[in-house]
Amino acid sequence: MSAIEMVEQDSTSSDNDCRPAFKYLIVIEPLGFLYGSAGKFLSPENLVGRSGSSFPPHTAALSGLFAAHYKGNMDYLKKLQLAGPFWACSKNPQNFYVPTPFNCLVKNDSIENLISWYKDSEATEGKWLPSVVDKFDKGSWIAIRHWKRITLGNQQECQRIKVATPPWKYTPHLHPRLREDERIVNEDLARGSLFLENAVQLNPDACLIYLSNTKLPDAWYRFGGEGHMVDVKCIDLSPTVQNLLAQPVGKSFALITPAVWGSNRLSYREPVYLQKGNKEKYNGDHLESNEKKVWSVDALITERPIPFRYRLGNRDNREEGEHGQSDRQQPEESPKLLSRGRYAVPAGTVYVLKESINQSWQEWDDNWFPKEGPSLKRWGCGLALPLPSAFGCYRLPCSCSMTYEN
Prior knowledge:
By secondary structure, the chain is mainly beta. The protein has helices at 3-10, 59-70, 74-77, 147-151, 155-159, 239-245; strands at 24-30, 34-35, 82-89, 97-99, 104-107, 110-114, 116-118, 127-129, 141-143, 168-176, 194-202, 206-212, 219-223, 228-236, 250-255, 261-262, 266-268, 272-274, 282-283, 286-287, 291-293, 297-301, 306-308, 311-314, 336-338, 342-344, 350-357, 384-386, 403-405.
């Protein structure tokens, strides 16, 4: 079954009941370098260097391992659900690290301040307190076992939490092009025999972590843009983390994975439910009347959106012979099934809603998530964990929510 047929068959159902909750940790340890690019939008500065770097790989890359192993068996692929990326120390993968919420202001590898949203019942606008003007570190990660300490909302308790920096570094280097049938440099003068690879070196004591509800056999797999070899182990997810993921997100929550909201054409800061048959229209920074906001957001902390794109594999242009085998090889330059470029709300974004959501992320409606083939919820889009009701975000109330046009 081709990748296109699998996507079309899977897109016919969006029932949440067909996807069990997360039960496994997928632990990935590279056997050398990993590739650090993920099909960013093409631009002059993106042709070389690190402008197109994206690491760790999105869950769509991991989904390809499941598709290759189960070979189109829809009994497994239809209910597949993944989330990530995260990372952990190899000796303790259950205590994996997730992006630090943006309301935690980090300096010198510790949380220096914790800002909270305060709003009087009679006030029309709230405040983020304490008011802090300073420069703080970005891109930090926090251990999942510390999440409960954050939700207590105690300033002194949070200041004792140590955060971590990513355990990987980028190593651009020239890489030879190899022949398809043997490990010899391809001396094709038209294309050249070398290309610049933006590789990533992971600390030997660290591993990549993804959540899954479907088991993947332990083995060596080719993983990432250049198909580098990795050692994959599947272990049971601890009951403590399962209970945390099963908690309702409530009135305030933080994203631990990037979130793509909106449609194939427009990206928003929050989910937008489009009735079937409605045509989406863009009118400045506002939604048209036939577009309905899912949440009533009081305020949020976020940063600039990040490009989001994934690849679903080759189009199947081969012809089968008498015994079901291909009579001719697929061309080397065969077209790829590439998703539309979107903008994602970054992991760490914190939402404060006017009305509480009495559901865990697992129970959220598939209609809140965009679709291009499968629903993006299948890949853990916008996985959220609860925060205290006093937690909040800075900047502006979300009545001034912006829209990013692709």
